Amino acid sequence: MVEQGGNDQPPVATHLGPPAYRLATPTGVGAILKKYGFRFKKSLGQNFLVDENIRRKIVAAAELSSRDVVWEVGPGIGTLTQALADAAGTVFAVELDERLLEILAETLAGRSNVRVIHGDFLKVDLGKLYENSLFEMGAGGGLKIVANLPYYVTTPVIARILEARWDWQLMVVMVQAEVADRMLALPGGKDYGTLSVLVQYYAEAGAVARAPRTVFMPQPEVDSRVVRLRRRAAPRVVPANPGFYFALVRAAFGQRRKTLRNAVKSVAVLDPQELEKAFLQASIDPMRRGETLSLEEFAALSDAILALRKGASPPP
Ligand code: SAM
Q1: Does residue 315 lie in a domain region?
Q2: 179, 196, 231: which is the final residue of a domain?
Q3: Is the dihedral of CA 6, 7, 8, 9 positive or negative?
Q4: Domain extent for 58
Q5: How many A from CA of 172 to the centre of ligand 1?
Q6: One digit per residue, pLDDT tens: the chain, 316 residues?
Q7: Which atom of ligand 1 is nearest to the CA of 48?
Q8: Separation of 301 CA from ligand 1 center, angstroms?
């Protein structure tokens, strides 16, 4: 048996086992980092959680049961992983930094439902991981993705999961406040952009908690927020060609100061009169800016452009 220290106390060793580290506290995290001589790599977005309250809120937001499988991106020293393992059936934790593996072996010892995978989450074979997850999942359980994300890969990690075909249920992620604002933004504001459309196309997004920079070690320069995405059974809109839909969205936000007419003309590949017709058919004023269009309006415009393209005579 291992005794835990009291409020924010250093680890306490007993004669029956190794010292336990009270993770999610500055003292506990500091102690284990010291033991292994660990030095943070800023380039890997290493800001470790040192706050019990935020950890609790993240885990509660994931609505975990023992039938669920969790993917964690970047377990670090295992602070969140411990709590996830206690609430879920199985946790697959993908960590890029090899130096953390021996620390994880210690902090996760005894939690046999955690599998640590050494690798880059953007490169691991997620299809295979999904197959393994289905194997571990209990009847009625689901796949949930929970992470305190390394800030430098936040958008590609979220995009990789959103665009995947497999059936995940919930994603609970801690991200920089500014990224959270973009994920949750509605049309008309400066935060509304490609990320907002991508997130809201596939999921219902909501804010869970604010996390000031003080909940991390070392402290980053900006505050963070926890956001929850609940995957929609079907995308919010169903454009005729989703690939073209997103190309149009990217073009519209790529040149935010331009009118839609100018911003989308290169991706539309229609002559100017035909493009005007597409705007008319979609009931969208071409003088508007992309940041004012709802997901539904983007779908109407993308379908109208494609329909006119099909009807157009082939180039000579
Ligand atoms: N989950 C831990 C916590 O909350 O204290 C650590 C979070 S820290 C913000 C991000 C973690 O992601 C680090 O452990 C870092 O080494 C890891 N990481 C960075 N890039 C990664 C990648 N591409 N794939 C997997 N892990 C990555």
Answers
A1: no
A2: 231
A3: negative
A4: 3-231
A5: 15
A6: 333 334 444 454 444 444 577 899 999 999 999 999 999 999 999 999 999 999 999 999 999 999 999 999 999 999 999 999 999 999 999 999 999 999 999 999 999 999 999 999 999 999 999 999 999 998 899 999 999 999 999 999 999 999 988 899 999 999 999 999 999 999 999 999 999 999 999 999 999 999 999 999 999 999 999 999 999 999 999 999 999 999 999 999 998 889 999 999 999 999 999 999 999 999 999 999 999 999 999 999 999 999 998 876 544 4
A7: 5
A8: 39
Q: Are residues 39 and 167 in the same domain?
A: yes
Atom of ligand 1 nearest to the CA of 81: 1
Q: 14 CA distance to ligand 1 centroid (A)?
A: 31
Residue of the CA atom closest to atom 4 of ligand 1: 49
Task: Kindly tell me the burial class for residue 185, based on how many C-beta atoms sit within 10 Å of its own C-beta (0-12, 13-18, 19 or more).
Answer: buried
User: How far apart, in whole angstroms, are the C-alpha atoms of residue 97 and residue 45?
Assistant: 11
Asked which of 209, 231, 253 is the last residue of a domain, the reply is 231
Same domain, 32 and 178: yes
Name the residue at shortest CA distance from atom 12 of ligand 1. Answer: 74
One domain, residues 70 and 48: yes
- Which protein residue's CA is at the shortest distance from atom 14 of ligand 1? 76
Q: Within 13 A of 138's CA, how many CA atoms are on the CB side? A: 9
Answer whether residue 71 is part of any domain: yes
* Position 236 in a domain: no
Residues with CB under 6 A from ligand 1: 44-49, 73-76, 79-80, 94-97, 100, 120-122, 148, 150, 153
Q: Is residue 295 part of a domain?
A: yes
**How many angstroms separate the alpha carbon of residue 232 from the centre of ligand 1?**
27
Residue 190's CATH number: 3.40.50.150
Q: Does residue 241 contact residue 298 with C-beta atoms inside 8 Å?
A: no
Output the six-digit token pair for 110. Answer: 């005894």
Total domains in the chain come to 2
In the reported structure, the alpha carbon of residue 17 is separated from the centroid of ligand 1 by a whole-number distance in angstroms of: 28
pTM (2 d.p.): 0.91
- Distance (Å) from CA 27 to ligand 1 centroid: 20
Of 44, 70, 46, 55, the C-alpha closest to 22 is 55
Q: How far apart are CA 236 and CA 238, in angstroms?
A: 7
